Amino acid sequence: MFNGALPAGGVELAHLPLVLARALWLAALLSTTGALLFRAAAAPSEAARVPSVRAGLSRLIVRGLAAAAAAWVAWVLLQSAAIVGADGLAEALAGVGTVFARAAFGHRAVAQAVLLLAAWAALGLGDGRGRFVPAGLALAATAVQAGHSHAWAMQGGPGLLTGAVLLHLCAAAAWLGGLLPLALVVRHAPLAAATATLRRFSRVATALVLLLAATALVQAVALLGGLGGLFGTSYGWVALLKALLFAVLLGIAWRNRMRLMPALAARGGRAALLRSIALETAIGLLVLGAAALLSTLPPGMHTPPVWPFAYRPRLPLRLSGIADVTALALALALLGWAAVGRRWRLPALALAALLAGGAVPRLGGLLVPATPTSFFRSETGFTAAAIMDGARLFAARCAACHGAAPLLPARLAATEDGDLFWVLSSGTAGMPGFAATLDEDARWHLIDFLRARATAGALPVRAPDIDLVCADGAIQALSDARGHDLRLSLRAAPPPPGGCRAADPDAIPAYALASGLSPARLSVADLLIDAAGRLRAVVRPAPETSIATETPR
Amino acid sequence: MSNVRRLVAAALLLGALSSPACAHALLRKAIPASGATLQAAPRVVRLSFSEGVEAAFSTILVRDAAGVRVDLGAITAASDDAKTISVPLKPLAPGVYTVEWHATSVDAHKTEGHFSFTVAP
């Protein structure tokens, strides 16, 4: 089942203080924001007018702001030390100034501090509309936290993903940050008032939880790097843990609403609900810890994932496969019902057995054998240089055997890059592994060569990427023009005014290899490359284009 | 016996696989490309990363075969693309050049790497 591989992209021990400081900052920021929002929204209610609730809320907010200030200092210090590469406190303190002046991280951290200070100054604005001012300022500080995310860094600015992170942060603040104020109400308010507040909180929380789940899904799709990233990287496992903790939170919230709230009037009812809210808060803190860890780990999509299982799903999933998996999930749900339900237990059991009996024998076909590197992706960009390096390596290291045992194109086409990488690294029956004798780049270059050679003979083929030199001396990659149809000449000639030419000595041999056409023909012809980066046709040169030019579509 | 050897080899290989550099801003594209041979001397080295980078806290050092710096030092961020930085070069003679880079992503993680390219005579 497992192949013994550890997930890629582990946590570095040296980063642990930074993760901890970030988690504490996040916890203080979100809970203070949530408490301010709670105070602003609940002000007109009867519960909020109870003196001990009011006093408790004020204390909670002031302490939260103090905790946020302390955590901010620790986080900014550690993060600045990491940015400037400081050893020791003196260097870190000196680095803070530079980071504030010149790094985007510093600008955002200062903005957050200013917003929280303003919130603190506005605390006394009274019970009227003014109470929304500090809440709004703290919410803005929480929103700025999205600027510290992978999402912002990857998108280079605002976008759908950053928007999802922002909503996720604000929803988490309103929900988790509302728990301690809720506990105050449960503890001190009269029964009717407490029940009314609980009802209202639970309605709002339902919406917030849906928002949290939806925005989490957007982030998972964008950052996890698919199935490989989910199970093959530390980032994926921490994300799984976070999802699991979130599910536990939902379970507790559901129990609070359905079981403990109706029993509030009974003896010990309040104590039971208070205990449950305390547990919910503790698990909420763990979720924030997992979130801080995630933002310090490289996202799954940027880590070569080490697949930990001996099998992987056959991708893409076929319809019958999806039906089988659904049937199995349904069977499990029915089994769950049979275990805890009150009625229809026997029919549920029978139906579960029927569904499972139909689906289980066919599950084998959904899985294919996997290797630890099944989900590795080539980073070479399929450049002419990589392909020709692979060609030289193949002649020197592989041709002796593979002259006699040719590699079948059909079999190559059916094998994923990641699995080819594993075969080349660890060997197969009759072939040694090359992990010790060829570095990773060399192995990927060999794979590019094998892929290019396997397609020769029938256009269209994937066009090898090459560098172009333009008239102003700038160098551009062919792949920069992806999305446009191109007419490309490989002829050696100085770039004409405003144009570019291929500046890659590997260009002609690589195109010859990938297309099966002779170098002599390629060096006088024009190549038509489509918007998806495929070589579609080789045509007689148009007299006016001795260059790579865009042709209007 | 050979089975045991294969298992040990696979375990060693896994060890090598499961400790990749903890990287955030990964080099997505370099121009000139790693290992490229150029027929004309480039005037700049341009690096594009998977995440936005802080130009003020990143460096690109370009050296000739004798180890002498040939870059002009001032890193600039592309005006329209926060993930790309570049450094201008002195006029290059034919030869092999190495590029050593250190990048700080805007989510404040550091990465580094190096590669070389050749200017053909």
Report the oligomer: heterodimer
Largest sheet: number of strands, sense, barrel closure of chain B: 4 strands, antiparallel
Query: What is the end-to-end distance of chain B?
Result: 54 Å
For the secondary structure, the number of strands of chain A is 10
Please tell me how large the radius of gyration of chain B is: 18 Å
What count of domains describes the coordinates of chain B? 1
Question: Mind explaining what this structure looks like?
Answer:
The complex is a heterodimer of chains A (553) and B (121). Helices cover 60% and strands 6% of the residues of chain A. Chain A has helices at residues 16-42, 51-84, 88-102, 104-121, 132-144, 150-155, 160-176, 179-188, 191-223, 226-232, 234-260, 269-296, 319-340, 345-359, 384-397, 399-402, 409-413, 417-426, 440-455, 507-515, 519-522; strands at residues 311-313, 367-369, 461-462, 467-470, 475-477, 486-489, 500-502, 526-529, 534-539, 549-550. The two termini of chain A are 51 Å apart. In chain A, the strands form 3 sheets. Chain A has a 5-stranded antiparallel sheet, with no helix packed on it. In chain A, strands 5-4-7 form a 3-stranded antiparallel sheet, with no helix packed on it. Chain A has a two-stranded antiparallel ribbon with strand order 1-2. Chain A is an alpha+beta fold. Chain A has 4 domains: 13-302; 311-369, no CATH class; 384-454, Cytochrome c-like domain (Cytochrome Bc1 Complex, Chain D, domain 2, Orthogonal Bundle); 468-546, no CATH class. Chain B has 121 residues and is mainly beta. Chain B has one domain (24-119): Sandwich (Immunoglobulin-like), CATH 2.60.40.1220. Chain B is 13% helix and 40% strand. Chain B has one helix at 2-17; strands at 27-31, 37-38, 44-49, 59-63, 76-78, 81-88, 95-104, 110-119. In chain B, strand 5 and strand 6 form a beta hairpin. Chain B is elongated, with a radius of gyration of 18 Å. The chains are: A alpha+beta (553), B mainly beta (121).
